[in-house]
Amino acid sequence: MDPTGKNNTREEDQNSYVIDSENAGELARLMHQDQMLTRGMGGLFPEFPEGAPLPAGGRVLDLACGPGGWALEVAFAYPNVEVIGVDISQAVIEYANAQAWSRGLENAHFRVMDVMQPLAFPDASFDLINGRLLLGFMLPEAWPKLLAECRRLLKPGGIIRLTESESGLTTSPAAERFNALLAEALKKAGQSFSADGRHIGITPVLPRLVRQAGFEEVKLRASAIECSMGTEGYYPMLKDWLMLQELIQPFLIKMGVATGEELGRLIQQATAEMQQEDFCGLYTLLTVWGRKPQ
Fold first, then answer.
1. What pTM did the predictor assign?
2. CB atoms within 10 A of CB 279
3. 132 strand-pairing partners
């Protein structure tokens, strides 16, 4: 189960993203993940059953947008709204802009920026700011700064919308062990809210972080993607998991939680267990949103 998202332009030695953001394999994984998450969450804005709170002529900012899947779909669904995505990776920004051009989406634009630094937009520029799976690079101490920056960038009454996750839950002992190693590595890297390194720990603290940043009417919505054998979510999640294992091994080895040989055996065993007929899995996400005071 994939607990990582994507990042945005620090120098390489300062980049806290746990996967090489310029890796072509990561671009392919993020393209696949974008579609899987939007479908699994129930659409672009499932927490707003009466429609997204986007006025005609409004503006949306997508933080750490990756290859732009969510932002491009929003631009297509809301042609009278301008959508801007920012990300650390020059490669994914070039890809996203090419996709916007090829699909004729003149209301979608993408720029290289680092969301852990002040963003190059004026105050009160956006009606809605979205962020999905930022945990792959965000440091705990960076969250208050990012949320303060989002409050600066939002218009009065504008909405911040963040979706994060923990590792998935499965019946595979080897997959569970791999998830435990990843949680341990994130803790060692200082990129975890977990008290003991057994979890990532972002979901229980996210609502409080949003409230502490001064947002009002903070609400939560949980989504669950079942990825048990035989379900619609099984093959998309398995594909994402297999791609992740290859890409994240250097981080796990660097943090000293396992050797390459140990990881290879663990991945082989997990893959076999996840292809058993009685395999069960569940991947959950938490969306938290709040409104900037008028």
1. 0.91
2. 19
3. 163
